[in-house]
Specification:
With about 200 residues, this protein is an all-alpha fold. The chain has a domain of about 120 residues. Helix content is about 55%, strand content about 0%. The chain is built from 5 helices and no strands. Helix 2 packs parallel to helix 4 and helix 3 runs parallel beside helix 5. The longest helix has 26 residues. Involved in the retrieval of endoplasmic reticulum membrane proteins from the early Golgi compartment.
Length: about 200
């Protein structure tokens, strides 16, 4: 006879299953971290799938506009330094950008790291793709106005960001650690030279 403990069993089993699924998902994300090219190739496939869906359905322009605004927000975080030199209180512990050429080299630390940028933008495209299957999100709008407004917003935002980069002399892209190639001496020749006396 059941003593009342059976009521919590389905809930406990469901929470164990959710925890195991989340752990497997996190494991896959952790394994994908070093594979930058493959991750971005996967994102390109997801973005292309979304664009084809919107093109063939000929709708969901408001969803696309919202996605564009979100991508712009993520891009600003990706291109911005973690500590903004304009608003940072100069503290010896803060990793600020070098101001003069004689300052110690500090690598560029983004406000939004590359992996989180990739993860957020891929998740946003997946959510937007799912939204295209619900007609409630297909609001009728004149899409050229939305596109024009987004292009203006993108131009103004990027102009401000580029002027910030020029003012504080930083570049948010680097090719990694600088390598110094050691020049090897040419191998000695084995031919005998005849000296004339």
């Amino acid at each position: 006879m059941d003593t009342g403990g059976g009521g919590a069993s389905p809930t406990a089993a469901m929470s164990r299953w959710k925890f195991a699924a989340w752990r497997q998902y996190q494991h896959l994300l952790d394994k994908s971290t070093p594979h930058v090219g493959r991750r971005w190739l996967g994102f390109a496939a997801v973005a292309l799938l979304y664009l084809l869906r919107v093109y063939f359905v000929e709708g969901f322009y408001v969803v696309s506009y919202g996605l564009g605004i979100y991508i712009l927000n993520l891009l600003i975080g990706f291109l911005s330094p973690q500590v903004d030199p304009e608003t940072a209180i100069l503290n010896a512990d803060d990793p600020i950008l070098p101001i003069a050429a004689s300052d110690e080299f500090r690598p560029f630390v983004r406000r939004l790291p590359e992996f989180k940028f990739w993860y957020s933008i891929t998740k946003a495209f997946c959510i937007a793709f799912v939204m295209t299957f619900f007609s409630v999100f297909d609001v009728p709008v004149f899409w050229p106005i939305l596109l024009f407004y987004w292009v203006v917003l993108f131009s103004l935002t990027m102009r401000r960001q580029i002027s910030h980069m020029i003012k504080y002399k930083y570049l948010p892209f680097s090719s990694g650690k600088q390598r110094y190639d050691v020049k090897r001496a040419p191998p000695e020749t084995t031919s005998l030279s005849v000296s004339e006396d």
